[in-house]
Amino acid sequence: MHRKIKHLILLSALVAVTSLAMADDPPARVARVSVVDGQVTLQEPGGDEAGGNLLNWPVTSGTRITAAPGARTEFRVGSTSIRLDGDSSMEVMELDDNVLRLRLDYGTANVRIRNPEHLSGFELSTPQGRVTMSEPGSLRIDTERAPDTSVVTMLAGAGRVDGAGTSMSLRAGKRMEIRGDDIFTGVAQRTPFDDWAQARDRRDDNSQSARYVTADMTGYEELDQHGTWREDPDYGPLWAPRGVSAEWAPYRDGRWTWLEPWGWTWVDDAPWGYAPSHYGRWVFVQSRWYWAPGRTVVRPAWAPALVGWVGGNGWNVTFRDHRAGPGVGWYPLTPRDRYVPAYRVSVEHERRLEWQHGGKVRWKEEPRNDGRRDGVTVLPREYFERRSIVNVGREPRIALPAADVRKAPLITAPPVVPQLEHRPGRVIETRRESRDDWRERHDGRDGRDGRDGQRAPIGQPVPGNTLQAQPQRIMPGGAPVVQQPGGVQDGRRFERDGERRDERGRISQQLPVPPQQGLQPQPGQLPQQNVEQQRQERQRQEYQRQDALRQEQQRQDAQRQDMQRQDQQRQEFQRQERARQDGQRQETQRQEQQRQEFQRQEAQRQEQQRQEAQRQDALRQEQQRQQEAQRQEAQRQERQRQEFQQRQDQQRQDALRQDALRQEMQQRQAQQQQEAQRQDMQRQEQQRREQREAMRLERQQAPQQQPPQRQEARPQPQNAPSGDNRRGPREENKEKEGRNRKNPEQ
């Protein structure tokens, strides 16, 4: 009996560690900044602002995006698009595999959701309320354009709005205004911002790349206009970029930035560079690079950069600035290379990162053992030893041929930068903009533990659970793995060969099982060491552990239960929101003071905005005047050109008309001549007939006057016709036959 209990406890502990590892997986979805028009700032989860070009910059939980007046921006996660108009600020409260929670502090946002599977996890909150979607479509939210006011406009689809102590459905073509404790409804009105968003959506609807990759692959919409597709029998669909040089290689034009918890993350400079940099693999076919997305999956897993690393302290190279020293290089992974994450993942998450086509995992069935590494780019190692953005295009990089890196040592990742105190994928608290500082408003919930007005606590390391690092291993290709300088902080790898797991760091959470009364393990002790002391207590909790294990397995295998859990959290949030609103109503005096302070600061802000608007308006009017002058000049030139063209057309038409009249006159004259000739011929023919008739009458009268004597040769009548009137032999024969018929006796 005791042995069975030990086995059950050991099994529960192993399942707890496995479940905890899966719970610690980083999010498989990371959004990207897809449009930057004007002054746009991006504040990362750690509080730092991203510098330089923000195109393709990763967006995850805790990221804040702010668009200055007159600017516009857009970020996407899969097929979902979020757009901000000028003078707007939005924070991504939570973004993971199933949840997208946004908070619009002020400004205007346009959101479109195409995939029905993403409806249950979507939520957009404002200081006055919360919006969810029940049908795919698009909506626009304007908040704080007027004090304490949010306006929700449903452009397509359907949703639900919670605010002012009530919850109401909203259909397409309707709008709802939340002003304090009052709600007003009306007819939706489109704006130029909506037209701009609709034009962007129309391009997505006509995308041809959706035939080769899933629409949930972030960045797929840029592939159509920047490259071409082809089919390959070995790799399936292949995509080649247009407009790249012969020396170009993937992961060579862009920047490296540190992003928790993934580590060094690639930000490509090309507009199309997001999807090929974070999904699929690259192949070098017929002296050209092609991106191979592999088999189509519904929800592909995102990776910071699908590259292999070479270098170390013992590998020195000479760079373009003629300086020699330790270098760190990277090369694009092919389907025959294994991707080894440098961050903590579970076996299941690592399986999702594998490249497959035709049911084959190439790195397992056809591993690369020749040591060839195409497209290697090298930078000095020191650039990766400080927490800053590494701009590859501006640094003294070099590109090494494949033959020069065959003996270069492989490393799992460049040097590790110290981590922050939070991880994306979990709800975190970041510094808000000035509009929130004085208002002291928050979401009212954390989305995890359901506590009102609090954030989910970051898991603390469990004492005694630190595992020792495994010995150095040999990676495919024969090159040894060089340990990262300084060790790996808070990261671990799970390997599949031999089911051996190399875990570094500490477990940061516990398995979500029912509370265990009286069970208090001592620091540094394992569950096996507490068996004899707590046997009675563990027997009573055995069925509870089994039930927790079954629930955990069902949660991992069925997404439906996860959606139900989210619905329960949403209902709990609604209950807490109502309780919070009731408490706020009881504190009217404190709210009145805050409102007065808000009005004062709002007046200051409006005055600043007015001055800024006047300056912007003056600049805009000057630009409009210049544009109007240019437009008028262009119109004048266009009118002159049109008048000249009209004159030429008129002259051409007059010439054609005169030519037609001349031809018509010639035709009329020809017809008149033909008619005159025809009449003349008819007149001549009539004369000939009359002459023949006269001659016939004369011949008929002649036999009656002369006696019937021997006839001699008849003289030809003196008035016989001549020329054209002269009779021919045929006519004479006819006259003889006529006479013979009349005088048969002759």
TrEMBL record:
<feature type="compositionally biased region" description="Basic and acidic residues">
    <location>
        <begin position="421"/>
        <end position="454"/>
    </location>
</feature>
<feature type="compositionally biased region" description="Basic and acidic residues">
    <location>
        <begin position="724"/>
        <end position="746"/>
    </location>
</feature>
<feature type="signal peptide">
    <location>
        <begin position="1"/>
        <end position="23"/>
    </location>
</feature>
<keyword id="KW-0732">Signal</keyword>
<protein>
    <recommendedName>
        <fullName>Chromosome partitioning protein ParA</fullName>
    </recommendedName>
</protein>
<feature type="compositionally biased region" description="Basic and acidic residues">
    <location>
        <begin position="677"/>
        <end position="699"/>
    </location>
</feature>
<dbReference type="InterPro" id="IPR046535">
    <property type="entry name" value="DUF6600"/>
</dbReference>
<feature type="compositionally biased region" description="Low complexity">
    <location>
        <begin position="663"/>
        <end position="676"/>
    </location>
</feature>
<dbReference type="Pfam" id="PF20245">
    <property type="entry name" value="DUF6600"/>
</dbReference>
<feature type="compositionally biased region" description="Low complexity">
    <location>
        <begin position="516"/>
        <end position="533"/>
    </location>
</feature>
<feature type="compositionally biased region" description="Low complexity">
    <location>
        <begin position="700"/>
        <end position="717"/>
    </location>
</feature>
<feature type="compositionally biased region" description="Basic and acidic residues">
    <location>
        <begin position="490"/>
        <end position="506"/>
    </location>
</feature>
<feature type="compositionally biased region" description="Low complexity">
    <location>
        <begin position="476"/>
        <end position="487"/>
    </location>
</feature>
<feature type="region of interest" description="Disordered">
    <location>
        <begin position="421"/>
        <end position="746"/>
    </location>
</feature>
<feature type="compositionally biased region" description="Basic and acidic residues">
    <location>
        <begin position="534"/>
        <end position="662"/>
    </location>
</feature>
